[in-house]
Amino acid sequence: MSVNPSRKHLVLLGAGRAHMQVLGSLARQGSGNLAITLVAPHPYYIESAMLAAYVAGDCALDELRLPIDRLVERSGAAFVPAHVIALDPDGRRVQLSSGDALPYDVLSINLEPAVERERIEQAMPGARANALFTHPLEAFVQLWPQLRALAAQRALQVAVVGDDVSAVELAMAAAHAVAAPHGSRVTLVAGEAPLLAEPPSALQRRLLARLKSLNVTVLHDRCAGIDAGVMQLASGATLACDAPLLATGGGTPGWLAQAGLLADEAGAPLVNERLQSDSHRQIFIVPTDAPAEVGPVLDANLRTAVAGGNFRKAPTEPPRLRLLSCGGGHAIAAWGPLGLEGREVGHWKDRRDRRQLAALFAA
Questions:
Q1: pLDDT tens digits, one per residue of 94-136
Q2: The dihedral formed by the CA atoms of 256, 261, 266 and 272, expressed in degrees to the nearest 10
Q3: Radius of gyration (Cα) for the chain, nearest Å?
Q4: Domain shared by 355 and 338, yes or no
Q5: Which residue numbers in the chain have pLDDT < 50?
Q6: How far apart (Å, rounded) are the C-alpha atoms in residues 353 and 363?
Q7: pTM, rounded to two decimals
Q8: Are strands 283-285 and 106-109 parallel, antiparallel or unpaired?
Q9: I want to staple 24 with a disulfide (CB 3.0 to 4.6 A). Which of 10, 86, 320, 363 is the partner?
């Protein structure tokens, strides 16, 4: 695609929350003489905070998956529906699946966690052919109703593979969704380490109790392979499994790990407190675990990178308030050592999620 060389070009890779906030700011304040391009595989934003509610059947697809076309238009940006193939940080170009080589002056990357399926296939042979991956979200939200429809016909053995809070949320939501009418069961294959050792103890206790109340079996074992109808475990045991759901943590996309940016041992680019790449300061990267408050800081720093001024420090600490959906309108809230749970908390979380989602598109 052609870009006017007389205008500075800001390229946004990914339709993440922070980029939606940047587009909203551009829609309100204008972009001046700046050319903006958003690149994403699909013209939708999916609110991950509402994913468990969707899995449980507590909200519809069109309530968490919103089209971004109007926001893009109001911001003055161009939208390119494509995947990134390669990044040349020295030449300041992004190679796209559309065949375009997109030049940029400033680049921002805000992606959902990447699933390197070849790596997972090596660790869990058969995963690519037999499992449902939770990422990319666009594919998962389209396929999940098929699994629910199957559970409405016969009893299923569902296995969620993952060891973090999002995997626990998914296991609880799935258990609520598939239990009726045939008594489908969910097993959480959570690895060998203690489950939820990091979150506050109040949250850990309540989540473990809720898993038990939903009849979710927790296995402290690793998935070592997946065949039709059965999961191989690292201990040598097997688990009957009709529907494996892989909620394992995502890594860095291959194209980003291979771009030559200064990175850690796992290939994740190193960024400073301004969200800039440590080696290429015209590239901004939002970590996948960044708090929601990072968006306005990214917006300000992108404007500074284009026009000059003072950069702002991005928030890095996770929010003290943790809100987790358990399915059926039930949720758990934890603030340090304090915790609450129940339907009232679920209603509060639902209202909060919907309000924040609406605010993203209110420009």
A1: 999 999 999 999 999 999 988 888 889 999 999 999 999 999 9
A2: -110
A3: 21
A4: yes
A5: none
A6: 17
A7: 0.94
A8: parallel
A9: 363
